[in-house]
Amino acid sequence: MRLSILIPSVWVFLLHFVVSVYQDQVGVLDWHKTLIGKSKLMLDDKLRNDIMFSVSENNVLAAINITNSKLVWRQVGQPGEKIFDLKQFNDKIFTVSGDSSQYFRMWDKDTGLLSWEYVNPKPSFKAGGAFLEYDETNLLAAVGTSVFRFEAASGKLLWSRDLSKYTADFGRVISFKDKVYALGNLEGSKKGIRVAVLKLADGSLVKEYNSGPGQSLDSDNFVILHSELLNPYILWRDQGNIVWFVHKLGITNPEFVTSHAKLFQLELMPPAMLTSIIVPIYIKGSNPMIALLYSNFGKGKAVIASLSENNFEPEFTKIIDFEHSLPNYGRSTMFVSQKGIVSSLSITKKNYFKFKAIDIPNWGKILYSGFAKFPSTFGPGRAQSIFTNLNATNFVVQSNDGQLYGYSPSEGQKIVEVSDSLSPVWSRDESLASTVDSVFVHYTPAKQTTEGNIIQRSSEFPWIANWILRIHDHSLSLYKFITSKFFVLFDNDPKKNTTPGSSSSNLFSTMVVFINKFGRVSAYDSNTGNQLWGVQLKHESDDSPRVIKRPWLKLQKIYSSQEHNSHSPTIVISGLDGEMKTVFTTIDALSGTIVPNLTKNLDTRVNKIIETDMVDQETLQKVYILLSLNKGNITAMCWPPNPVLSSASSDVYFNIGNKPGSQALQGYKATLSRSIPTDPDQTSSQSSSQTQSVSIDINKVWEFNLSSENLQLLTSSSLKPNMRVSSIGRILSNRKVLYRYLNPNMMSILASSKDSRQGLKLFIIDRVSGRILYSAEHKNAYVGDIEAKKPLVVMYENWAVYYFSSQNPSLPQTSTDDEATPSDTAVSHPGYTIISLELFESDVPDSISSKKTFSSYDVEKPYVLTQSYLIPNALSSLGVTRTFNSISMPNLILALRNSPLSLVPFSEVDPRRSNPSLDKSLESSYLKPYEPSIEISANEMISYSLSIKGVNTLKSTFTSLESTTLILATGLDVFCSQESPSGKFDELTPSFSKWNLSLTIFLLLVASIVVAPFAKKKVLSDLWN
Amino acid sequence: MNRYLNYSSLTPQKLSEKIPDPSGFRQKRSASSKSSSNAATQENESYLRSKKAWDVAFGPAKSLPMQVIMCWMSGSKVAIFSLLMTGMVLLSPIKALFSFSDAFKHLEPSDSDLQEDSGSTSPRVDLTPQKLAFICFNLAGVLFGLYRLTIMGLLPTTSSDWLSYASPKLFSEYSSP
């Protein structure tokens, strides 16, 4: 009988240690958002009324169905590439783009497939322009210092002219009759427009000269007016000047000086003249036109005029004037379709806007006009741009943070006066494409399932409390199960699913909070991808009379500032206001509301934020050290202001200069001391928070000067403090242990020569002492300005993996350890290479330091093993998976270009994979023999057949399940996935039945109790016999 | 009336008294018989006891080569047969050591046999060397079993076996990236 009680007791006791959930309770496997980003150029399809082509700030060329917001196709530029211009040629779209090369591409407008491409291997990062000749046969393009003429249908290069001897960056080109006019921005101190006149037939230079002094091609006060009917002109107004200059291209002199009255037949006050801007209008078959956007007694107005020549002098004729946005809102408030329909956006206060479509070729007929309230589907924002389709039956309003709203005001060509506020028919949220930073926030949800409770409590309560609560939860669950089974006999509703584990629950309780460059903060459920809340952080209120281009905070960094087991997690965001002073904003992560007493404008610009391991005892917020750097002086302050610290004094080491382009790294020590002021006036009744103050003492510890070798930092990766490590050693084939060099203060930096495009150096530095623990050089690595080939590095536990591309035949990698002799004989292969290295305490197995405490000032140097591998494609980002206790094997997350996101176990790139050069005593039997190339299997491709483009950041965080990690990819698209790098060892398969198990144990228990007297009787009888 | 039958007439002692020994047969039960060659018989019996005890002592040693061969045949990988074999190799000598007293009990004269007043002629036999040999051979078997466990990697004798219990170091400095 004792056993029959003991066994169930042990079983019940062991329940405490078992935390497992069903596979379908873990949530959806992944979610993603296919984005294009905020549009900077839009072009309506002149052959279809429902399609518009967009070039976004993320350099995505896309075709959008304007009637339903669906993405028809998209083409994502290479990292660093900029699309400068697009033109439509029949059923094709022509683009001019550039990075370290110049690209001229023709795309099929219906499918997005490439028809032809021409690449000029010259860099172009600033401007470019395309021009379809009036006969629509050939294309002209100007980019960088070159002008090109292509046969549009075939892509055949007719001629190209290099104008490199002129110090100008050409970005516009037009032709008229037998001449080509290329216009560029003058480079150097002399600002202005450079004009080159070429012969259309062969591109030979006719003349070149400067014009438009002080102007640039993108200026709001500069336009090029052209049409097939008239010689092209340029027109501009100097900053602070009220007169306009008109210049006929090709003629060195004269420049006509004119006024508003002559241009647009209207009289303006000088302030209105000074703030006005102009918009060029080209309508096929008409004379060049120009629109003037100006302010008339505080109201925005627009006037359109046509250019003609009278006695070889330019003459402007007013066509129409109408209400429009104030000129401060920019040119994007006006859009001209290829058919000549002008759409006007009139932005008013309180989130209303008026819209109007004017058919210019049809004598300025107004197709429709009306007003709409700017929707707040995704949070507050304001209308910024308007685009229309060919016949202007639909229009799209883009907000300042990249959201697109589609409207359908009219059917056909009816004139419509929209009297009621018009509602959008669709919207596209593109704000995540402009993500600046993101953070995972672990929280306790309000509504939980039994399993969710268990997982959350396990980290909060002692085991006995967990056990009692668990019994309670399971009893409740049993009751619910029985009642549901009972009632299901009378209720045959098939929609009700009472299968255990079938309910979707939010077990991971993790949200992802994004900040974007438009001041938007948005939180998404990491399980489902649903938006939880959104906040727009502004430094200018909506009621402000001023119209400024950036009313939002320029957000920089986001941190999770309260521990995950708290019921009220908070996030803190740093941003810059209009005067570039730092504003710290604290937001309640559950509700998305701003915490007013923890939100403050600091009246200074913070250059660096140091996250500490201290907690303010009063607000329970993490303590941050905010650094302002001013000409070598460092000013430090604490956030939250004046925190209450638990310890009297704490040291925090940090670095300055670990940003790309830096040539010097410095290490500092910040000492936070709690001091009690001795002010006699303070009464004893004051709280401790009021009587305490924290002083910060900053001392420079070390400096590493890269400039002595003419190096500059490319990228860096640091270990996170307080890292958890599951094992302190690696087990070898002979069952000895190679102890890992676990130093949480390590930092890897990649540096290259400032003057050369080849040669890469890796340094592993101790952030506290500044000691160089390891260094290596790769002379064949490419480190040029091609964004797609930039080196990457990631560091985790005691290992680092870095990536670079190499073009030349392999050169030996050399260790430049300053004390040890070169020991590395590995060769970095040409191609896309990743090098893995692992640091150990010693090269002798079973040799471990006897010290219980690690200090960065210990003189022991690590033993480094390194190996190189080839990967099949270029990497755009590199990350590593993280689990709570690091029990699961860490995996590299690879964002390979033109390939799905992939996971590669560290064992695949382990430097101890057996090879002839490796000491046999260091081999591990569980590692495969060395192969130079890494093959990625289909199972390792976590984004499978999804088209995830433009990934530049990969993050990972732990979940409540040790086996499972959350992976987040951002850049252009957003992809979030749950992965189990070492298998789902703590998840139950659907075939596992808790009820069957419980029933079996119960029956066994009953059986043991029933048969116990019989067994006893038998034993007694045997003894008697 | 006595309900029990008396079979005492059928006991060997009684039969032997009635039936003559065959020619050349030497009376073994000297203790019970009152033969004239009592001293010689005692010497012979102690020799026999000693010899039998050596047989018992060498028993584990004789089986050890066979066990070695069988273990070698089963391999050193952790598999069902090699585990069974190793278990047998290890448990047999341990069992024998635990039943050490039983192994030699029947070879030692009982206390009643040694009582002079009962007229016993059983000699005192010193089986200590045999017992020591028995222990040594069984210990050799245990050692071989342990060796098998070692080469199979089942004994926590290396540093890797205790790695998960090793506590990580504390860090004296805190740095923020």
UniProtKB/TrEMBL annotation, chain A:
It comes from the Eukaryota. The chain crosses the membrane at residues 995-1015. It is found in: Endoplasmic reticulum membrane. Keywords: Endoplasmic reticulum, Glycoprotein, Membrane, Signal, Transmembrane, Transmembrane helix. One of its GO terms (biological process) is protein folding in endoplasmic reticulum. InterPro entries: Beta-prop_EMC1_1st, EMC1, EMC1_C, Quinoprotein_ADH-like_sf, WD40/YVTN_repeat-like_dom_sf. Residues 1-23 form the signal peptide. PANTHER family: ER MEMBRANE PROTEIN COMPLEX SUBUNIT 1. Belongs to the EMC1 family. This is ER membrane protein complex subunit 1.
From TrEMBL, chain B:
The chain crosses the membrane at residues 78-98, 132-155. InterPro entries: TMEM85/Emc4 (IPR009445). It is a multi-pass membrane protein. It is found in: Endoplasmic reticulum membrane. PANTHER family: ER MEMBRANE PROTEIN COMPLEX SUBUNIT 4 (PTHR19315). The keyword Membrane applies. Residues 1-44 are annotated as: Disordered. This is ER membrane protein complex subunit 4. One of its GO terms (cellular component) is endoplasmic reticulum membrane. Residues 1-14 have a biased composition (Polar residues). It comes from Smittium megazygosporum. Keywords: Endoplasmic reticulum, Membrane, Transmembrane, Transmembrane helix. Belongs to the EMC4 family.
